[in-house]
Design goal:
The protein is α+β, with helices and mostly antiparallel strands. The chain has 9 helices and 4 strands. A 4-stranded mixed beta sheet has the order 1-2-4-3, sandwiched between helices. Helix 1 (2-55) packs across helix 5 and helix 6 packs across helix 7 (208-224). It starts with a helix and ends in a 16-residue tail after the last helix. 47% of the residues are buried.
Length: 285
């Protein structure tokens, strides 16, 4: 059901992009918009992981490190290839996954995250990122971000260079409404994928409460410690397990409290999961 919903929303976003192109340039504009979206998606399909990792100055982790062993063990539990594993020198606690498919994926965590969490919580976070890779969310979200970004650029172009003789009011409404509509679609897709990654990640680690505890700690740390990359590139916020400096209404992720509640319910339903008394779900240690 989640995949069907995502497919429908992605189709709606593409249709919105073409509709704006049609409003600005007629049938030719719609065709050009579609070709631009296709070209941008092809580029990001092959290069998104490199761009994201370079943006964060990420360095690949040695295969002999404890962190590499932790992630590799989780990947084996999930019956998936071991992705490339990166570390980011930053006090800001967060993590993300990138790559076009499980065979060409990477996961990364900040040094701040490794310092702030215990081993069980780190496992929960990295299992969540592996779940994004396994579910192919990284490719879907890259496509969504690309189309939404291109739509915003097209709307800005249309706002400043529109033809006053060609459906002026309709064009103005289109360039103002389209980016907002694209943001709503992007939020709907992102939030659906986050709940799915929480669930699958908890199944991989076998400890939903560890992920719940990690989310609470990361949320507090992310609010207190600046993230220069996200400040320079706001679109990067959707990459992280907990986004930063974004109001709940416009966040690409569900509220952390709601995610914790879902994980607590999952822990209660898993007979082999640690009980709440074994790990405080609110992240207090």
């Amino acid at each position: 059901m989640n995949m069907l919903k995502t497919t429908m929303l992605l189709a709606a976003l593409t249709a919105l992009f073409m509709a704006l192109g049609f409003t600005l340039g007629g049938p030719r504009g719609a065709i050009i918009s579609l070709l631009v979206a296709f070209a941008m998606n092809i580029f990001t399909y092959w290069n998104a992981d490199k761009i994201v990792l370079k943006m964060h100055n990420a360095r690949e982790v040695s295969p002999t490190s404890d962190f590499h062993a932790l992630v590799a063990n989780l990947a084996r539990r999930a019956n998936m290839p071991v992705p490339k594993i990166y570390l980011i020198d930053s006090p800001h606690p967060n993590a993300f996954a990138t790559g076009r498919n499980p065979e060409n994926a990477a996961v990364a965590a900040t040094t701040g995250l490794l310092d702030a969490l215990n081993r069980d919580e780190i496992e929960g976070v990295m299992a969540h990122e592996l779940a994004h890779v396994k579910n192919r969310d990284t490719l879907i979200m890259t496509m969504v971000a690309t189309i939404a970004g291109a739509l915003s650029m097209l709307a800005n172009f249309g706002l400043f260079f529109r033809d006053g003789d060609r459906n002026g009011l309709a064009t103005l409404l289109a360039v103002l409404v389209a980016p907002f509509a694209a943001m709503i679609v992007q939020l709907a897709i992102s939030r659906t994928r986050e709940y799915g990654a929480d669930r699958v990640g908890a199944e991989i680690s076998g400890n939903p409460l560890a992920l719940a505890s990690a989310l609470a700690k990361i949320s507090r740390g992310a609010a207190a410690i600046p993230n220069p990359v996200a400040q320079r590139n706001p679109s990067a916020a959707q990459l992280y397990i907990v986004p930063t400096q974004v109001s709940e209404m416009f966040s690409t992720h569900p509220a952390t409290e709601n995610r914790i509640a879902e994980l607590q319910a999952l822990a209660d339903a898993m007979p082999t999961a640690p009980r709440r008394s074994a790990l405080d779900p609110l992240g207090r240690s």
